[in-house]
Specification:
Blueprint: H1 5-27, H2 32-68, E1 70-72, E2 79-81
Antiparallel strand pairs: 1-2
The chain binds zinc ion (ZN).
């Protein structure tokens, strides 16, 4: 899940923010509990963002992979799988390559 650069940057940014918040809580012990809550919130938010980002990335990759497997039908131009021997839209039979 952390193999891409954007996710690493996002994670690093979150770590730095949490680090700064931790230092703040050391300097101002009276508001430490509020800072802790903020840090927790940022961490949860970061995880959600990363998860959404990852899903979008997977989805895009999937679409690209699907496009590679597809070809326009010579009769009706609809996108069909290269392995199809008959176009599902216009029922024209296609010679398999
Ligand atoms: Zn067709």
């Amino acid at each position: 899940m952390f193999e891409n650069r954007e996710a690493k940057f996002l994670l690093l940014g979150g770590m730095i923010t949490i680090g700064v918040l931790y230092l703040l809580s050391r300097w101002y012990p009276s508001i430490a509990h509020i800072i802790f809550l903020i840090a927790l919130f940022i961490f949860a938010f970061l995880l959600i963002i990363l998860q959404i980002y990852y899903i979008i990335k997977l989805f895009k990759h999937d679409k690209l992979d699907q496009k590679k497997l597809m070809t326009p039908c010579p009769a009706c131009d609809a996108l069909i799988y290269k392995t199809d021997s008959t176009c599902p839209y216009c029922k024209t039979s296609i010679r398999s390559s």
